[in-house]
Write the structure tokens for this entry.
Amino acid sequence: MMNKLTAIKAAVLGVAVLGLAACGDDDDPVVTTAEYMLTVHNNTAAQPFSPVLAALHNDSAMLWQLGQPASVALEVMAEGGNNSQLMTALADQYAVASTEMVLMPGNSDELSLQAELKSGLLLSVATMLVNTNDAFTGVMQIDVSGLEVGESMQLNLPIYDAGTEFNSEAVGSIPGPADGGEGYNAARRCGGCGQPPPGCGIPSR
Amino acid sequence: MKRTLAALPLIAVAGFTHAATIDVTVSNLTQAITFTPLLVTAHSSDSYLFRLGESASPELQAMAEGGDISGLNTLADSIGAYSVANPAEGLLMANGSTMISDWDTGENTQLTIVAMLLPTNDGFVGLDSWSIPETPGTYTLYLNGYDAGTEANDEIINGGGASGVPGIPANPSGMGGENATGVIATEVNDRVHIHPGNVGDTDPDGGISDVNSRVHRWLNPVAKVVVVVK
């Protein structure tokens, strides 16, 4: 399916370090934290985004890997827009946050993440295109530790297919406003499918 | 002190002097989408002609809905841009390319390119404010198809090219249909966004679309641009 290709660039993610706060006293080592402001623009024609998840983390967290099976947590988000399992999976990382509302086409939303400055500080973002069966957009493990205060980066994000649900586009199978159907359904994974989707079987870490 | 102040503008000017001579080659990578006359313009970083996620200006709308670049060209002139209008001297058909040679862009630092995509309602190929490198060399860019967000993509070929008039003005590559009922009557995202692509159908006389889904669909990118900085 087209969504597996990286041909369509649908979203722009602007990341800017807005503030640096150095704190600490004579007894403690100086701790320097940074606040990362994210702006997510929905540049699709008519695909609302589910609440946008963003996290600052180390390289032990990998939301997905192209060509590898999706985790259940990613599947739940990609099929139904529910990012709570991903939030839980990332809870012990440096920072994780989610926007509250659906992000409509043409609109943007912001998130703020704070973390202690360190090398290898990675940013990941994920959100579902809700008028699909299991398509999502996002970015994985972008190193933001080199960003200076006031510096920003902008990324165009491709669209991925979680590979956990057939793109039947059938009535009742799409959670967004185009259908109002079902989101995540565990039964569709593996045995529930007529043939195994690429994401069948092995949850990624 | 006075001397220092007087020297500053000179330093500033020297620092920003960027006079470049470049070649620009634009190639149409699509199967059967035609580019209307291109506007290729070099301008400062203070302005831009379109931006993803922002509303289209009336001048951009005129280009995207009808292929008319005169308004954008006038806008570009008004901000001191150096522009080359219609380098292909007409339509740039699929698989075609056009070259601007030894173009002096003066002190303009940003390169913008636009042209309407046919057959679409308000689709255009675009490059927004690419920073022209100072280092001599060959640079290759790939351009997306954008939707101006100003007209519903009904995909009815009816000659409607004026701003606000529904329909597609022309289909130079042929292979289209007629008497379509229309794909969609409203535009959901009224800002410049990634074009969702043509839907089309396979019915030459009727159906929902006058666009042929066998040849008039596309995936981004739609154009290749090679810039040689001399």
Notes: The longest helix of chain A spans residues 72-80.
